[in-house]
Amino acid sequence: MTNSQVNSPIVETVQGKIQGLSRDGVLSFRGIPYAKPPINDLRFCEPQDMYSWSEVLECTSPGPIAPQNVFELEKILGAAEFPQNEDCLTLNVWTPSLDGKFPVMVWIHGGAFATGTGRTPWYDGTKLADKQHVVIVTINYRLGALGFCYLGEFDGGRFPTSGINGILDQVKSLEWVRDNISNFGGDPSNVTIFGESAGAMSVGTLLGLPKAKGLFKRAILESGACSHCAPPQKASQITTELLKTLGIGMSRVEELARVPIDKLIEAQGIVTEIRGAYLSFQPVIDGTYLPKSPLESVREGFASNVELIVGTNEEEMKLFGIDDPELQNVDEDKMILQMTTLGGQNFDYQESRDLISAYKSHYPKLDLGGLWFQMLTDYVFRMPANRLVEAQSNFANCYYYLFRWASPSFGGIIGSSHSLEIPFVFDNLDKRGVDLFTGGDIAQGRESLAKAMSQSWTSFAKTSIPTSSEFDQWPVFNSEDRATMVFDINHRVEYDIAPHIRKMWDEVDFRCI
Fold first, then answer.
1. What's the whole-number average pLDDT of the chain?
2. Separation CA 466–CA 204 (nearest Å)
3. Among this protein's residues, is 86 annotated catalytic?
């Protein structure tokens, strides 16, 4: 191989040749199209096979991100600077070498199914490819209304995959990996999918999606599980509100395919704000592509051969409460009122008081606002994770974790918040915004934490066992002792954390938050 080939490597794909870059001992290929642009007549349609090309396609920079309203967290991560376009179905690859058979890890980004991108600097795969000898793939997929607006009640069958197109985009990217990754030094028979927040909820959905079966061997779910898919009835309500906001009649739903994208995204934001629901748009259990709740499918053994790492951060909801007075200023009466309606579950007054009392006992140092954050953390994230790991541990080895490391940033108010683990997983402590979020040099244990998590995730992808030089052993989860790896300044295994609280949530339906 010549120097020019090393610095500008060229790889053959099914669609044609592409050219990437060599930097820091790692080869990268960015902005690779994996499906036809979902524009014009293809808006709200299932992703289509990408067309072929005859010339070498330059893939040295990421493609546009999916159209979205950029939230504050995405601004911190740099998304506000990225161009947006409906022609967004691209992926990025980092590999230590084209000559090898390395494990493949496919990252699905989060963002409430409405924001985010695979090109975020925190997700750069250079260090994992270089240090851990794995191939990293990050993807874009359709978001918000484009990816998850359910038209089944209105369109007469013209858009049969609406409500789940964003997930089908992910499937199409995994099919691209299956068909092409060996030419990048990856092993298509050893693919691990991993994601955070809505990315982990996507992973959970893929566990129960027939079309995804066999496309991955292992899965890692960070702060998301199998419990965030909408039934058609709820999804149709969201669609009705979107059509009303745009001034489109129920019998003219095909006009959605012609609405200018800026107006569609604006209307999507209005609907989300009106509903006050962070996950207004999410995968729909349409009865065909997603026949039933993914958790139900997992419980029936549908994903029986897929090994898992599942976990959450201890104080997930603190990130969302920084500038939300509704979350900060609560009293016990408001908490009880909320508890009686969460998820459509009819807690009675006494049950709500009992649950609050249990949290007061377990977290004696927290004020009411802190208790409410903890209850919401468990409701949205921790308890659905419990259900998934309990179900899948009957069929395959599963490993459970709790991220307890607390950031000193912003006076410590974010604690061990949502998404804080991401730069540690990717070993990207030097990326933009990470010091702001994690406290930089004033924070204790950052280097050890990055080593522990990046080694654990990649060793799991390689061998099915998460190991690291930073701890002794991570036992397999079972429903009796519930072994949990706690990632903190000192990493350790704890067993059956807060069982009395967990049991009080046992009858709650966590779907459709």
1. 91
2. 20
3. no
pLDDT of residue 512: 38
Mean pLDDT of 173-194: 98
Domain at 292, CATH number = 3.40.50.1820
Pair (2, 96) in one structural domain: yes
**Gap between the Cα atoms of 139 and 89, Å rounded:** 8
CA atoms of 144 and 117, how far apart (whole Å): 13
Q: In percent, how much of the chain has pLDDT > 70?
A: 92
Q: At 2, is the pLDDT very low, low, confident or very high (cuts 50, 70, 90)?
A: very low
Co-location of 251 and 386 in the same domain: no
Rounded to the nearest angstrom, the gap between the alpha carbon of residue 361 and the centroid of all alpha carbons in its chain is 32
**What pTM does this model have?**
0.94
Question: Does residue 513 register a pLDDT over 50?
Answer: no
Active-site residue identified among 28, 202, 280, 418: 418
Angle at 491 between CA 449 and CA 485, to 5 degrees: 110
The answer to whether 74 is a known catalytic residue is no
316 shares a domain with 245 = no
Report d(CA 57, CA 10) in Å as an integer. 9
Task: State the catalytic residue, choosing from 196, 316, 390, 470.
Answer: 316
Would residue 197 show up in a list of annotated catalytic residues for this protein?
Answer: yes
